[in-house]
Amino acid sequence: MSAADVVEPSAPLSRRARKWRLGRERALTGLTVAGLFLAWLLSTHYGLVNPLFLPSPAAVWTAFVRTATEGYQGSLLHEHLLASLGRVLTGYVLACAIGIPLGIVMGLSRDVKAVFDPVIEFYRPLPPLALYTLIVMWLGIGDTSKVALLFLAALPPLTISSMQAAAGVDPRFVKAARSLGAGKAQLFRHVFLPACLPGICTGMRISLGFTYTVLVAAEIVAATAGLGWMIWDASKFLISDVVIMGLFVLALTGVALDFAIRRCERALTPWRFR
Amino acid sequence: MTTKRTSLWTLAALAAGLVFAAPAGAQDKPAAITIGYLNLVNAQLVTKALGLHEKESGVPIKWVKFGSGGDVNRAVAANQIDFGGVGNPPFAIGVTRDLPYTGIFVLNMLGPVEALVVRTDKNIKSMKDLVGKQGGAPFGSTTHYLFIAALREAGVDPNSVKLLDLSPSDAVAAWMRKDIDAAWVWEPNLDKMVKSGGEILLDSGEMAKRGYPTWDIGVVMNDFAKKYPTAVAAYLRAECAGIDFWLKNPEETVKLVAKELSLPEADAARMIKGTRVVPCAEQITADYLGTTQNKGKFADTMLATATFLKDQGRLPAVKSLADYAGFIDPGYLQKVVGK
Questions:
Q1: H/E/C letters for each residue in B110-150?
Q2: Which residues form the Solute-binding protein family 3/N-terminal domain (chain B) (predicted)?
Q3: What digits encode the pLDDT tens for the residues A225-262?
Q4: CATH superfamily, with its number, for domain B114-210
Q5: For B33-109+214-338, CATH number?
Q6: Domain spanning A55-273: which superfamily?
Q7: Which of the residues A238, A240, A241 would you substitute to probe the B interface, choosing the one with the greatest number of B C-beta atoms within 10 Å?
Q8: ipTM value for the complex
């Protein structure tokens, strides 16, 4: 579905041609996945790589089952997952609640933009880990500092995309609505919001993806549960099957989150997907 | 499309070239040497400050500082250093996991330089008082191992203490904010906690007397040692010269260490007292590495450490004593000290 959305055929294709094309794309995707898996299977089976660096698929699967049923260092796999999701979503939802309205206001008022822009532009390019040492000193080693780091990672993409979306609303729409007698509330509800939503949604998607990538960094200091921590701790003890299993869980969860937010996007801005 | 394909092929060709080019240039001298050193107080600081490695090997030396042995193990797994240093628990972990390195000399025996510091106002007088308290140690290091060992010795369930994975510098930050009540770390960070409302409850020297010796061992990557045996000998000559200097010139050593760590000389002097550095000739006796024919007590300590870590669910299996002894090679040092 997504691939078909992105690829814009130069000439309109017939239904059959489109179906064939979609089938071909899926087959190619399947081939890549199968090929990678086969390479993994064979290279570990024939001992081509040190199992420390690349454990076999069977070892990773065993690590998955073991962690799901017996746990890793005191927490079951789903508990690690929930701890991480809790942190990511708390930071992300807070960032949405503050970042989106702030971005819209910044897009509409150049004065507000002048106030907040330097702050966001200054810390945005900082690597999360560098920022984290300072946050730990300020907020301690508990969950507050972890959520704060995720919040700070989530904020800039949200604010910037909301700002651009609000600033980019076609003035003709505004004029047209005004001439029809729309008040401020109506203008916001019926013109600004629908016009901004696609841009905001894109920002939300980018932001969630970025926040998720900061998770491991956020859980390095003094966590006792969480997927990122599990991967970090296992790498300290060179337990590579747990590391790779953790990465798979992390990746699949990331894909699921992205899928969920795309669904939201479809529900909120249905006209873009017609 | 075409450009993309071409660049991909170029990339693949480059990668293949790198893989095959690496072992081709075998010479007796490497172009440069990367030494990973632990952020603690021992004679390696003197060796570094005096530039002894540059003198002995005649090639540029790159020093990389590591917070704990667990990080060194990662760097070894990624093949990013030539020489490194690890404590016995990370060494036992690395060896059990078949990391391609070998222990070649004793960096130091751990004594009061590592200690369990507790918050004075919390009235913690024994290990039992730590139940329900928040503690910190770098996981996988000597002090994490001793923290759990000391709790078990005192009959306290290690799970009844909230133990957090903190590097010594993070532990200081957490301590200053009163997030933790106890931490087992090493100098120079240990002192910062003692100075801000802490007192020492137990130290690694005391644990050694109770049968939990801890030490840091200098390691070399196997491929490097095979390719440049003379560079390994030069490395050990420099380290032994540093150890000699440390033992024979205590006043100069204090000055050098104080400068390396940006500390007042009085603090450096105390930290130096807490570390025991072993003369190279003594390192090949039964109490330490032993000889290639008769391996010393270090191998026994590794087996004991690995067994302990397996009980903690940190290692899947334990190797045999002979296997652990195989990862210690006193041969290079024997040649350097002429025995």
A1: ECCCEEEEEEHHHCCCCHHHHCCCEEEECCCCHHHHHHHHH
A2: 32-250
A3: 899 999 998 988 888 899 999 999 999 999 999 999 88
A4: Periplasmic binding protein-like II (3.40.190.10)
A5: 3.40.190.10
A6: MetI-like (1.10.3720.10)
A7: A238
A8: 0.71
